[in-house]
Amino acid sequence: MPDMLIRREGIFDKIASAFGKNDIDFESAEFSRKYYVQSESRKFAYDIIHPRMMEFLLATSPGLVDIEHSRICLSDGMTVWKAPRFPQAFDWTRQFLDLWPDFVVKDLTQGRVL
């Protein structure tokens, strides 16, 4: 599975883009303005972040979603989570994964490179 980072876009990202360091932009101008997305596979990013996923991410405002080595790490970037936060994070992750298109899941389970 390709690595992918999804996080809120900050001022330093906007400055970096002025110097040619760009993230992946999407068809939703609002989503592209609010989120920084980076992936070694643009195709994977576009397959995962489709219009319904963008709506979900905009509505739920996750802090940081880091997919590396086929693992998903969630963080708000600022605090150590207390125990009550974990069930919420688990539920959010389930919803996030449920929005992955079937063809992506099938390709990943069959070991196809995306």
Explain what you see.
The structure is a single chain. The chain is 46% helix and 18% strand. With 114 residues, it is an alpha+beta fold. It has one domain. A hairpin with a 2-residue loop joins strand 3 and strand 4 (71-75).
List keywords for this structure.
6 helices; 4 strands; 18% strand; alpha+beta; 114 residues
- What is the N-to-C succession of helices and strands? EHHEHHEEHH
Class derived from helix and strand content:
alpha+beta
* Structural shape: globular
Instruction: Give the uncertain stretches in residue-range form.
Output: none
Number of strands: 4
Distance between the termini: 7 Å
- For the record, the count of structural domains works out to 1
Return Rg in Å: 14 Å
| Number of helical segments with 4 or more residues | 6
Tell me the fraction of residues in β-strands, as a range: 15-25%
Q: What is the assembly state of the chains in this entry?
A: single chain
